[in-house]
Every structure is written in C-alpha cells, then in structure tokens.
Amino acid sequence: MEPCSCDTFVALPPATVGNGIIFGKNSDRLCDEVQEVVYFPAAVHDNPREHLQCTYIEIDQVPETYAVVLSRPAWLWGAEMGANEHGVCIGNEAVWGREEVCDEEALLGMDLVRLGLERADTAEKALNVIVDLLEKYGQGGNCSESTMVFSYHNSFLIADRNEAWILETAGKYWAAEKVREGVRNISNQLSITIKIDREHPDMRNYAKQKGWWDGKKEFDFAATYSYLDTAKMMISPGRYCEGYKLLNKHKGNITFETMMEILRDKPSGINMEGEFLTTASMVSILPQDSSLPCIHFFTGTPDPERSIFKPFIFVPNIPPLLDTSSPTFALEDPVKKKPRFQFKPDRRHPLYQKHQQALKIIDKKEGNFHSVWSP
Q1: What span, in angstroms and rounded, lies between the C-alpha atoms of 263 and 10?
Q2: Residue 6 catalytic?
Q3: What is the pLDDT of residue 311?
Q4: Would you report the helix, strand and coil content of the chain in percent, each value rounded to 5?
Q5: Is the dihedral of CA 198, 199, 200, 204 positive or negative?
Q6: Domain-by-domain residue ranges, the chain?
Q7: Tell me: the pLDDT tens digits for 104-114?
Q8: Sheet containing 164-170: which strands, arranged edge to edge?
Q9: What pLDDT, on the 0 to 100 scale, is given for residue 368?
Q10: Which fold is adopted by the domain 7-372?
C-alpha cells in the first residue's frame, strides 16, 4: 500500500528559528486527482436538530463552527490538510495494520480533519473531537474517486501555537502522543511506540483478546497494532525515516522556507512522482505570540518543486477563493449518486489549469517530458 503516500511534519522550539511552530504536509494522491484550496467562514447553527452531510454520511451538527481554510481533493467534503482561525492545523495519513479496514461508508479520515478544525480551538480539543466522532460514527468508505474501493485507517498530526499531538488509529482504537518540543513526523505507518500520553480505554484489552499482546511485556502501540519491527523503525529505508532525517538535519534552524524545501525533496521520496504524486502541499507558521497572525501557505497544484506556495491569513470578510475552487456539479455529482463514481468530471480549478499550461510551456522549452494530466 506504499503508493498511497503522505508525509506530515512539525517543528517546535528549540528546533525552529524564532519562538514559533512550523507545520508542513505533502498530500500524495492519484496523479489525476485535483486538489482545491477553499475557505469556509465561521457559522452559528441554531437548529439543535440540524444534521451535517459529510462525504458519505450525515452526523449531528454542533452549535458553532470556526472559520477554516482547507486543501482537499475536490470530490469530497473533508480535507487532506488545513487550518482554522485559532491557529490549529491538521494533516492526516493513510495507515494499515492488523485491524481490518472497513469498506462500509462512515466518516473518512479526511472528514475527521475538517471536523476537528471546525469544532476545536486547540490541538488537544481537536484530538478530542476526532476520537469522539470515531467512537460514535466509525471510519470507513472509499477514499478515492473510483469504482475500485480503496480504504484505510488514519493517523493525524495536530498542531497549534503551543504544542502538537500525534493521533494514530486502528478502527475505533487509538493512541496519542504529545509533542512538546523538537521535531516529529508521520508517514504511512504507525509510529507511536511506548510513549503514549492518551489512549482508547479498551485499546490494550482488545489487543490482548486478539492475541497481539500478552499483557506482560511493555506495550508498544505500533508493534502491537501493525507488523512493524519498531526497533528498526528509525533506520529502515522509507519515507518516515527519510523525513525524520531531513528534520534532524536542520534541527535548530528550521524556518518555513526549510519546511518548504523538505516538502520539495525528491531523492527522499517525500516529493512523490508517478501514478501517485504530491498533488498539493501546505506549510504553516504558528507563532507562540498570540498577537502575531498565523500564516498558512498552500500550493493548490501538484509537485511543490514546480509550484508556488501562496500565503493565507485569517482576516475579516474573506471572499471566496475562486481561483482555487473547483467546479461544482450539485446533485449530478457522481459522488452523490448511487452507484457512486460512474464517471469522473473535470474538476480542475482556474489555478490548476494555468499551472498545467505553464508546465507545458516550460517543458517544451527545456525538452522535458513531465506528464501533465488532461481530461
């Protein structure tokens, strides 16, 4: 399952330059999938019986939701990554392990990213939102715009101005690790081992019942719920280890520019090419001084090496982000009609189209033959 790849990073003081936190993520998806950057304002929901339609299922709405900016595959409701008006950032990863993945439609991990951002003003509150929804509604459903079902469990990196949390799941079971300083990254594998700061109350008992843990040796979440040899995790070839090396190479001097360069790194596999490629990227500056604004940079286009990171700051009266918003198809959208995904519409937004045109011109002049998708 390695082709479906993402990498999410966080650097906290003293690893960063200045008194702030740097968050970054590459979203690696199928090469023909368009990712849009969209803004939703804060809202009050007065009707206590109101329901919210997510990608596949309806859930209960909450009385108030915060303003969010999201980078998301244009066909779904949730998001691969994003931020809210309170400086909370979340990115998710596909993970697999011993617990069977559910194909039945429930909340996608990408739905949980958006829900955590809309409903929480700190990183730990976002974690609470996600695990509560996971317990109530579960996770599952097709994670690609295709008739071929592609499902997975999820891990999350959640950061705010003061701290970060790693949340990793296996079905409804989960473990969380608090990150107070230094650097941390997640990729497409479980990475929480023995440092567990919070957990599902039945997580250890379930592992004992399944025969994955004898109840005697020290509990290691990644080793128990997946097939990883966690003793070799930091020296094994792969993007998780390569990402950790890149963060540590720059430890003490990490800026937002450093994070962008990490996301652009192709030799490590962080910037992915091929059938699965880096379709969008995000970097955020989260100052610990609350008088300073958080700044969020998005590409909205594939390959960060050949894209520009464009800044976004939460201010009053933000208009719709028309240049990075994909066309909508209302009830005719093949995501909403069952059987789903019977055809794939052209979801390219204006920026995506102009980026494709620019790459064709550049490649023609340079004699390169990068593949640029056309419908």
Answers
A1: 12
A2: yes
A3: 98
A4: 25, 30, 50
A5: negative
A6: 7-372
A7: 999 999 999 99
A8: 35-40, 68-73, 81-84, 89-95, 153-159, 164-170, 173-179, 198-199
A9: 64
A10: Penicillin V Acylase; Chain A (3.60.60)
